[in-house]
Amino acid sequence: MSSFAPGQDLDALYQEIILDHYKNPLNAGLRDPHEAEVHHVNPSCGDEVTLRVHLEGEGEDAVVADVSYAAEGCSISQASTSVLTELLIGKPVREAAVIHADFLALMQGRGQVEPDEDVLGDGIAFAGVAKFPARVKCALLAWMAWKDATNQAGGGAALAAAASDPTAQEDPS
C-alpha cells in the first residue's frame, strides 16, 4: 500500500503505482483449489482475464481465501487485477463486496469521487483512470470477473447481504 508524501505529484504517484503492479503483478497464475473460474473479455480493447476464486466457509460467513488469474491486455487492466487480489484475498466476502462497490463507484465517478485510501489501498491510483471513460472498462474487467466468479463459487449470499446493508457501505473494517 502506498501513501502520499507532501508535495508529491499525485498523477505521477498514481502512474507509478499502476506501473509497479503491472511489472510486478501480485497473485498472478492460476491456482487450485478453486470453486469457480470465469473468463471475461473487454470487447472494446481485447483485454482478457481468466480468474479463479476460492472461498472458505459458507453463506454470509464466506471468506475470499484466494483469487488467482491469468490476464492479457493493457497495463491498466493487469494492474487493476493485481490490486484486486491484494485488496480482497483474506477478506470476508461481505467486506470484499464493499471494497468492490467502492472501486466501482470510484471508476464510475468520472474523476469526481474522492477515493478512500483506507478502503481502496493502491486502488486509489485508478482515480485518474476514471477521467477517461474508454479506460474504465479496462480497470473494471477483473472486478466484474471477481463478482461473477464469487457468485458462482457460492458467495452470492454474502454479496447480496453487503448490497442490502447500507451500513456495510460506510465501514468495511
Describe what you observe in this structure:
With 173 residues, the chain is of the alpha+beta class. Helices cover 46% and strands 14% of the residues. The chain has helices at 10-23, 75-88, 93-108, 117-120, 133-164; strands at 36-41, 48-56, 63-72. A three-stranded antiparallel β-sheet has the order 1-2-3, with helices on one face. Strand 1 (36-41) and strand 2 (48-56) form a beta hairpin. Helix 1 crosses helix 2 (75-88) and helix 3 packs antiparallel against helix 5 (133-164). The chain is globular, with a radius of gyration of 15 Å. Mean pLDDT is 89; it is low at 169-173. It comes from Nocardioides massiliensis. Residues 14-138 form the NIF system FeS cluster assembly NifU N-terminal domain. Pfam families: NifU_N (PF01592).
